[in-house]
Amino acid sequence: MKKSFTSILLGAFLAFFACSEDEAPEQQVVGNWELIESIGSWPVDSSSDTELDFTTNYQFNFDGTFTKTRTTDDVEEEATGNYTVVSNTDGTYIDLTFESGLEIIESCHSETEVFVLKSKNRLEGTWGTCDGMKFIFSKR
Predict the structure, then answer these.
(1) Domain membership flag for residue 110
(2) Mean pLDDT, the chain, as a whole number?
(3) Which pTM does this prediction carry?
(4) Rounded Cα gap, residues 89 and 76, in angstroms
């Protein structure tokens, strides 16, 4: 009886920790993401968070909505919309469709932005593929 109880306890313990480490990409995206670096098409265009003259944050919510906030010279601009997480053999992508704040979109496309989930704490923008800045975000 004691051996069965120990086996059950050990199995429950392993199942709990295995599930918490294998968090689904949709769950990894939820939270607040802060711009930490920008990389331009030319090496001279690169900046870390201490050198940027603006801040950008994304708040991804469980219900598939997001809020983007950009602050420049104490002026805050906000955009909102919906996002979807798409995983395939190339990686995990976050597709953002904006409903408001279109003037602060940084993308190759008019009303969308696309990010690549590089790790559970790192997002990379895809604007750099069309000669824009490549923005890198860290989860806070």
Answers:
(1) yes
(2) 83
(3) 0.77
(4) 37
